[in-house]
Amino acid sequence: MFRKALAGLVVALCTATAAAPAVADGPEKMVGPIWNPHTKSYFGLVDSLSNSRTWDEAARAAASRWFKRTQGRLAVIPDRDTHDFVMTTFAKALNDDTWFGLRYFCSIRKLMWVDGRILETSPAGVWHPQWFRTAKSSCEGVRSMGYMPVYYRDMGGVASWQASGEIKRFYDYLIEFPTGKP
């Protein structure tokens, strides 16, 4: 029963995100895309320059980009190898808070990737010691969205994951093009 309800939630969220209009882009700069053989995907780091975005806006902007006939999405970082790839590849550019494709759904207390997969086990050592960053306690104040978006928080050259409230806006987002081949 839970899985069926969860599947319905995923379909509803994916449909709502896909149906939303693309965000009008100002100038943007992207590092990449760069091939990751481990995930069989290309990754890029987009700097929106003067146009900060919420997580939803970054997700729409990523979905409006295409590479090698593959639609972009906010990056899925499912394991430590992928996290290390991102940290190594984008080390010089990843110096600001940066959106990627993970959300914490408060009502079901689960982390979910933009592709609908549940994150069962987080990669070791990726979370900030205070896993959420909101004005109130973890899920208070996110009722309109129902989830807390997750981002890379810059900690003086070391980036870690942290969940945020609904009003956060960042200039950068990690994009992934899951091509399946180079």
TrEMBL record:
Signal sequence interval, chain numbering: 1-24
CDD domains (UniProt xref): CLECT
Family annotation (InterPro entries): C-type_lectin-like, C-type_lectin-like/link_sf, CTDL_fold
PROSITE patterns cross-referenced by the UniProt entry: C_TYPE_LECTIN_2
Occurrences of domain C-type lectin (ranges): 50-146
Origin: domain of life: Bacteria
Keyword field: Signal
Gene3D superfamilies per UniProt: Mannose-Binding Protein A, subunit A
Name used for this protein in its record: C-type lectin domain-containing protein
